[in-house]
Design goal:
alpha/beta, Molybdenum Cofactor Biosythetic Enzyme, Chain A, 6 strands, 42% helix, MoaB, MoCF_biosynth_CS, Molybdenum cofactor biosynthesis protein B
Length: 161
Amino acid sequence: MHTNDYREIKAAVITISDTRTEATDKGGRAVMEHLDDCRIEVASYQIVRDDFKAIQSAVTTALSQVDVIITTGGTGVARRDVTIEAVRPLVDKEMEGFGEIFRYLSYTEDVGTRAMLSRAFCGTKDQTVVFSIPGSVGAVNLAMKKLITQEVFHIVHELNK
């Protein structure tokens, strides 16, 4: 199906970073550009620090306001990377295939065996889908172009049946 077969959807973009600002948030900007290309309205954008409670608060607030939430950053294996741990308890259903396919594409197209460090995540809560992707522009472009923009309309449609 084409995107215009579905209703309009709204998105929240949340960048997780202790160092990025709106001026330096290339990953968040790339997410918003991909959404704009698909005519998905970005209803909110914010940068939150790499902090479990701050991430949960931002995602919880957005859950009641949008159809899709995309977090970028904080998905690595460093001690401060807690995005997945913060987001996972907030969803009802996890879509494991998203992370699996993201790592496969990362492995074959870009980063090789370092792809195993990527903890890209997707899950749903009620009628909202939540994607958590790494913060690098390359990872954002891969996730948005090859996965998220290809399926987000269909996922939201399924959640609203």
